[in-house]
Amino acid sequence: MRTVAACVLALAALHAGAQEHQHGHQHGGDGAAAPPAFVASTAKSFDALMDDAMAVMDAGMKQAPMNGVSEHDFVTMMIPHHQGAVDMAKALLLYTQDPELRNLALGIIAEQQNEIKVMQAWLQRHTNKEKQ
Question: Containing domain of residue 51, as a range?
């Protein structure tokens, strides 16, 4: 199980790096710098990891590129929201041996990452349509 979790965490880290390349205008931002990317590590307590995950998610949602089109704006805000769930699940995997919760966390990671990819593909298709 640890090998599977390690692979999921490694893939999640790669995916998170790709997330940082989104662009567009910000909404609701106060000009504050975004928190650093979430890093799941036992160097921090579980509480601290959850705080970090929430801070990154909140910043991502506040900085989502909005254009006033409800479908677009929903997708751009849901991507960091789903990534927050992935980050929280990664934190849990570091701190629990409960098999039921480990399976739940692994499922959250897999499903939310899949949904992020679906939303990114939707966004790419609809952004390309707007440019034509």
Answer: 2-9+45-131
